[in-house]
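Q: Could you write out the predicted structure for this multi-component system? I'm mainly interested in how the pieces pack against one another.
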Amino acid sequence: MSKLKLGIVGAGFVANFHTRAITQVRSIEIDGVTAIKGAEALSDIVKKHHLGKGTVYANVAEMAKHVDAIAVYVPNFARLEIVEQIVDAVKQGAQLKGVICEKPLGRNVKEARRLVELADEVGLKTAYFENQIFMKPVQAQLKQLAPQQKTMGPLALTRSSEEHGGPHEAWFWDPTRQGGGVLCDMGCHSIAVGWYALTPIGKPITFLEPVSISAETALLKWGLPAWREKLLNERGVDYSKTPAEDFTTGIVTFRNPETGQLVKAQFTDSWMFEKQGLRLFMDGMGPGYAFEVNTLQSSLQIFIGDVAAEATADAEIALEKSTASRGLLAVQHNEADLYGYTDENEEAAAAFLAGRDGYLPWSYGLEITKLVMAGYMAAERKQTIDLIDPEIQGELETYIPLIQQGKGAEVLF
Ligand SMILES: NC(=O)c1ccc[n+]([C@@H]2O[C@H](COP(=O)([O-])OP(=O)(O)OC[C@H]3O[C@@H](n4cnc5c(N)ncnc54)[C@H](O)[C@@H]3O)[C@@H](O)[C@H]2O)c1
């Protein structure tokens, strides 16, 4: 079986998560790593698990000569610069088959569109990594409910949410570097998976046409004095000056172009979730059938009493963004697989090896960025945004939310 030789840019949280996933993927070798910080440590993991050569390269240009595809796992503010380096490398003769980018594709439509254009310029195949679409529970409900969908009709409502207590690195909290708060960071997941679950089986990923969006953004926890101070001390971000939203909710309405039926995807995302750790929740309602996914309901629970709590070295082992290390804990023993990282890697490798785009190309990531930006627009204007209005579509091309501009106080206070 031929394997895709992958080079990874960035060696932080998500690069490590993907590496864990790739221990379960037979079609990828991690042959290169380059990052400002963490490349050696990631390379050690690659070598320890025999996942590929794991050579540490000084930069993208060097790495591009030795791999088939590059995965961009750098922070949002560094995306464009890295993709420009990849495209330059191809122009210099690097034989790359494809390029992968983590969510969100861009901090705004202009940035996301530029990324799509750059890859097109040199004919690079693309994969936009939206792991939640590849989640096994999401895929399994589709298979299980296919007969119901066929006889009764498609889903009419989905509700999706991703919530935890707040991100692990300072740059996520800074709306100018990240692109906003939780709507930009996690709203992109919930909007994507909601849209996907509503899509009738067998139809293309953008078959349902986005018609309108309403949304709210709010700063409910991290703007309070004690939490603001903690954020300032621990992350160096001052939410009295440049706040970002820690809560968002909204509804996207879609139209089925064949039947005219209107269906809705409701999303809720927060960085103020006070439970055991990360929770992904999705449900869907069809005529006479439904599904529900809740990643905090695990088949494994463990209990750690106070006397034994000191022995727990690392709460994060139990669950991403764990908030407790004692009591009754939900444990996910294979998070990389549960969250869809395994299958999205497998799919991208198969696509690039066959000379095609991934199931979710960057052009799809651009559509998600548009919806996220329209969400900010709706919250800022306190209006439902008409997504078929050509004027709005034009505005979205250059729209930068106030929160992303560092002017969140005008919206959130
Ligand atoms: N799918 C998911 O659920 C998920 C989860 C976490 C992060 N992400 C996405 O992954 C991306 C990375 O997030 P993270 O949590 O791994 O961030 P991180 O801060 O933990 O790691 C970033 C890595 O990139 C490196 N880096 C920064 N600038 C660089 C540059 N110019 N050149 C080379 N390396 C550079 C850093 O040194 C570090 O190794 C983000 O876009 C984020 O949105 C997705």
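A: Regarding packing and overall arrangement: The pocket of nicotinamide-adenine-dinucleotide is lined by residues 9-15, 35-38, 73-76, 78, 81-82, 102-103, 131, 169 (CB under 6 Å).
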